[in-house]
């Protein structure tokens, strides 16, 4: 039989499969009345420390869960073990980001919750492209990483609903142009909340906690996600 | 290095579509990649070369078309492409909104099969 040539105009998003899986997750989360916050940031930015500092307070008002994403070890899950939150660890064993399928695979291990944090793999590049069905995305950026990071990793900051500037207690000791960073963030993503905290000192957590509570109540009222920017 | 995950998604998406159409071979794939999509085209090409063996696209050529970020100015309505991910409008100077240039799209592919495939 003769082979015939064909041209197929597919016009399909390359991340189609992840987007469909994320849409399924989002529907499931909505049905369960669960608010989900995806936390991104470099290794060492303070993502786990921020959770350590805030979980005791959040656990008073909500049933909280955490999915910890790391290449290897359950160290972060162990750090959060006594926090009052239900914690599940995903090891990607080299994978640089979490995707919707990985998140969907561990949901059975969590009890009924009001609020779920997904701490993504420490990486300012890859996680930005993968929707996890979250209601909001928070990027933790620490002072010690340098003031050039928003310009160097624009997609991550562009897709954030909140940017948590962490380790502000170190501002007097490092060369860091804070006004410049705030200007860059304002240009990259004017809709994002910028919150300055020092998680390790338990300082200035109030605006962060307020933001988290606002995301939860926004979801309860059935409003659209607080998302801004291009995903 | 999420280009490998993207290459896997590419092989899966095109493979499924080609199978549904009854195609026996995929000869070329055209991708549109925005400069704001965090993707290095060379890494995507290398990843595709690594994983295409043994699939219907084993001999397929990957053609990547890069797309510049596109901006829209809400104040004066100017649309323009710029080599940056944030910009002020070149006409009136107000902050412009990024409206394109972050896409990752499998635009089209070419293949061969009996009668050009069942649906082709």
Kindly list the characteristics that best describe this protein.
heterodimer, A: 231 residues, alpha/beta, seven-stranded parallel sheet, 8 helices, 34% helix, globular, disordered C terminus, B: 120 residues, alpha+beta, three-stranded mixed sheet, three-stranded antiparallel sheet, 2 helices, 6 strands, elongated
What do these coordinates show?
The complex is a heterodimer of chains A (231) and B (120). Residues 225-231 of chain A have low confidence and may be disordered. Chain A is built from eight helices and nine strands. Chain A has 231 residues and is of the alpha/beta class. The longest helix of chain A is centred in the first third of the chain and has 16 residues, at 16-31. With 120 residues, chain B is of the alpha+beta class. Chain B has helices at residues 3-20, 41-51; strands at 25-34, 61-67, 70-72, 79-81, 97-100, 104-114. A three-stranded mixed beta sheet of chain B has the order 2-1-6, covered by helices on one side. In chain B, strands 4-3-5 form a three-stranded antiparallel beta sheet, with no helix packed on it. In chain B, a hairpin with a 6-residue loop joins strand 3 and strand 4 (79-81). In chain B, helix 1 crosses helix 2 (41-51). Chain A binds chain B through residues 1-18, 95-97, 99, 125-126, 128-130, 154-155, 158, 187-188, 190, 230, and chain B through 1-2, 5-6, 9-10, 12-14, 17-18, 21, 23-25, 27, 31, 36-38, 85-86, 95, 98, 102-117, 120. Strand 2 of chain A pairs antiparallel with strand 6 (104-114) of chain B.
Major sheet strand order of chain B: 2-1-6
Summarize the biggest pleated sheet of chain B: 3 strands, mixed
Instruction: Count interface residues per chain for the largest interface.
Output: A-B, 34 and 41 residues
| Helical amount of chain A | 25-40%
Total count of strands of chain A: 9
């Amino acid at each position: 039989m003769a082979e015939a040539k064909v041209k197929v105009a597919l016009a399909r998003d390359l991340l189609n499969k992840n987007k469909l899986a994320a849409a399924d997750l989002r529907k499931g989360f909505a049905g369960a009345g669960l608010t989900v916050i995806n936390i991104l940031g470099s290794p060492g930015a303070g993502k786990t420390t921020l959770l350590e500092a805030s979980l005791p307070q959040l656990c008073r008002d909500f049933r909280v869960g955490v999915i910890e994403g790391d290449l290897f070890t359950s160290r972060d899950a162990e750090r959060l073990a006594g926090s009052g939150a239900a914690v599940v660890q995903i090891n990607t064993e080299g994978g640089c980001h979490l995707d919707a399928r990985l998140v969907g695979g561990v949901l059975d291990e969590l009890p009924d919750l009001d609020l779920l944090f997904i701490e993504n793999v420490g990486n300012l590049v890859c996680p930005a492209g993968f929707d996890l069905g979250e209601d909001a995305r928070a990027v933790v950026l620490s002072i010690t990483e340098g003031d050039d990071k928003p310009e160097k990793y624009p997609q991550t900051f562009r897709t954030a609903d909140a940017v948590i500037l962490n380790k502000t207690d170190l501002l007097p000791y490092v060369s860091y142009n804070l006004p410049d960073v705030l200007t860059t963030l304002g240009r990259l993503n004017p809709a994002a909340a910028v919150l300055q905290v020092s998680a390790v000192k338990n300082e200035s957590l109030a605006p962060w906690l307020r933001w988290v509570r606002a995301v939860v109540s926004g979801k309860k009222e059935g409003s659209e996600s607080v998302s801004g920017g291009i995903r | 290095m999420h280009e490998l995950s993207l290459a896997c998604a590419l092989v899966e998406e095109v493979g499924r579509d080609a199978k549904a159409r009854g195609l026996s071979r995929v000869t070329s794939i055209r991708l549109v990649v925005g400069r704001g999509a965090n993707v290095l085209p060379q890494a995507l090409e290398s990843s595709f070369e690594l994983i295409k063996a043994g699939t219907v696209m084993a001999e397929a050529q990957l053609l990547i078309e890069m797309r510049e970020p596109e901006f829209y100015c809400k104040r004066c309505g100017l649309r323009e492409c710029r080599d940056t991910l944030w910009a002020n409008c070149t006409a009136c100077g107000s902050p412009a909104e990024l409206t394109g240039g972050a896409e990752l799209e499998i635009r089209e592919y070419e293949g061969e099969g009996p009668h050009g495939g069942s649906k082709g």
